[in-house]
Amino acid sequence: MAEREALKLFYKGATIEISRLLESSKSEIIARPVEKYLARLKSLPYTKVIIKYYDIAYISDFIKVPDGRYYSTATIIQQFTGFNGDKVQYSDITKKEIEIVADLVEDTFFKEKRWKIFLGNIKAVETTANTGKGN
To answer: Fewest C-beta in 10 Å: which of 6, 58, 94, 122?
Structure first.
């Protein structure tokens, strides 16, 4: 049920980029549809996962595009920590850009069009090791 409700926040077809640090100190980035991202999150090899978002660094002005929608971008910092028992197995901090979409959609209850805000694609911009900083 939580997955179904989370999907309502996203525009149809949105993707989420995940990143992970490799031993070479480089990061690997993979884009997945939101549905697959949420399903895979449950199957990670950790007993507990904590994802924190903080430091909303920037939100751009909304820009109208030819299809009538308005788009903006928010830049945030994400802290990911995966545990096995009480031991941290993996942790990183990723700067992410979140596409925000304002669209005029039909409200079936009120039988009128209303503006609705959706999350769009989420891009991983930069990933670093978590050194214990952040909230």
So the answer is: 58
Domain count, the chain: 1
Residue 78 burial class via C-beta count within 10 angstroms: exposed 0-12, middle 13-18, buried 19 and up? buried
> Is residue 51 assigned to a domain?
yes
Rounded to two decimals, what is the model's pTM?
A: 0.84
Q: Which two tokens stand for residue 133?
A: 């900083």
Does residue 38 sit within a domain?
Answer: yes
Output 53-61 pairs: Cβ under 8 A, ≥24 positions apart. Answer: 53/77, 53/78, 53/79, 54/79, 54/134, 54/135, 55/134, 57/95, 59/100
Q: Length of the chain, please?
A: 135
Q: Which stretches within the chain are classed as H helix?
A: 2-7, 34-42
In a domain, 134, yes or no: no
Report pLDDT digits (tens) over 4-38: 999 999 999 999 999 988 887 788 999 999 999 99
User: What pLDDT digit, counting tens, does each position of 91-131 carry?
Assistant: 999 999 999 999 999 988 888 999 999 999 999 999 988 86
